[in-house]
Amino acid sequence: MAEDQRVDLGLVDSIAAETIGEPGQRTFNITARSSRGQAIVWMEKDQLFQLALAIGQLSEDQKPPDPPSAFVPEYAHTGEPVSVEFKVGDMRVRYDTSTDVFTMEATDPGDRDDDDGPGETQAEEQVAVQFSFRRSDARVLAEDGQKIVAAGRPRCPYCHSPIEPDGHVCPRSNGHSKTGIPVE
Q1: Are strands 82-87 and 37-43 parallel, antiparallel or unpaired?
Q2: Do residues 27 and 41 touch, judged by C-beta distance below 8 A?
Q3: Which of 5, 119, 133, 177 is buried most, with the most CB atoms less than 10 Å from its CB?
Q4: pLDDT value at position 173?
Q5: pLDDT digits (tens, 9 = 90+) for 42-76
């Protein structure tokens, strides 16, 4: 098995939650850029929502150090700037109390097979990309992520299913009536 690629963008210059497409057909990502390169990490809507909540909670719960220590990236950068783009398999967020820096790690599940043959063991998934960002960026990322998720299709107040642009047949009304279902 080939060794997984590790990319550490260090402290990023910009980080943003983004969405592409119309509500009901959207795709979501986090884009991070630094002098070391760029990463675009595609994810599900629920993953973006949970990430935004976690980062927002961490930024509120953790008191900033006074003064913060200098941040040093975990892995040294060698060579040209890199560009990675993939759909995330697993994400982790951690906070360094001494530097007041958040770090997001994202792994690409790759082509791993859960049904290893006899005598085979599956190696632990390695970090595909990680990048770090300041508290101010964390707050903006958390707010933007929640706004992006909330900007989707409105939910039916009765069955909580998404309401399509052409209307909604609510199963709570036995699927026969569109009456009383508010469409905003």
Answers
A1: parallel
A2: no
A3: 133
A4: 72
A5: 999 999 999 999 999 999 999 999 898 999 888 87
Which residues contact residue 79 at a Cβ distance below 8 angstroms, ignoring those fewer than 6 apart?
Answer: none
With beta carbons less than 8 A apart as the criterion, state whether 173 and 179 touch. yes
37-66 burial, b at 16+ Cβ within 10 Å, e below that, comes to bbbbbbbeeebbbbbbebbbebbeeeeeee
Helices (H) and strands (E) in the chain, counts: 2, 8
Beta-strand relationship, 129-134 and 27-34: unpaired
| Domain residue ranges in the chain | 7-110+123-152, 154-184
Question: What is the C-alpha separation between 75 and 85, in angstroms, rounded?
Answer: 19
pLDDT digit string, tens, across residues 85-119: 999 999 999 999 999 999 999 998 865 555 555 54
Residue 29 has φ and ψ, to the nearest 5°, of -155, 165
Question: Which spans in 13-80 are helix H?
Answer: 45-61
Crossing angle for the helix pair 45-61 and 135-150, to the nearest 10 degrees: 140
Q: Give residue 109's region: left, alpha or beta (phi > 0; psi -120 to 50).
A: alpha
